[in-house]
Design a protein that fits this description.
Elements (H helix, E strand, L loop, with lengths): L3 H42 L4 H9 L4 H17 L6 H13 L11 H7 L4 H16 L3 H21 L12 H13 L2
Length: 187
Amino acid sequence: MPSYSSNYQTTLIDAFFHERDQELRQAFRERIKKLDLRAQLSQVSGIHDEAVLDRLIELNVEPEAIAAIAVVPLVAIAWADGAIQEAERDTILAAAKASGIQPQDGRYPMLEYWMKKRPAAHLIEAWEHYIKDICKRLDKTEIDGLRHDVLSLARNVAEAAGGFLGIGNRVSAAEQTMLNRLEKAFS
């Protein structure tokens, strides 16, 4: 016949393992959540290196922020010479869609608005501050990769309209000034 203390021991052991079971379940949930967030960040950013994605997760960088990191420079380049041309608009929308951002799908509702109305100057300033802050927490290789991706997309937008009738410099002076400003944010 089990003793009274034996019942407490069984209860204690059951409670311990139940608690441990709950911890294991929570750890599993966290791994699944991290995998899901990693997949979202990868889709939005185009980054596939799991270490870089895990680092972004550690820094609490959300997919919406990555989308903004990619889209704000594109909009800034398109507006650099005072108006968004159709080819620039198409290039921005293609880049956004390739990153998993659909216009007016609730994930990035300002994109269509920015295509119609030039964003305030403080938007690019906020982007610059955010990039500088992120770069303080990334290593050189991560910064170089992020810089390359962002500036490549921005240059594609700048080159989309081409020179006059496709002749001459494919990037206007205003667009080049903006490209230089974007690049400087990564320093």
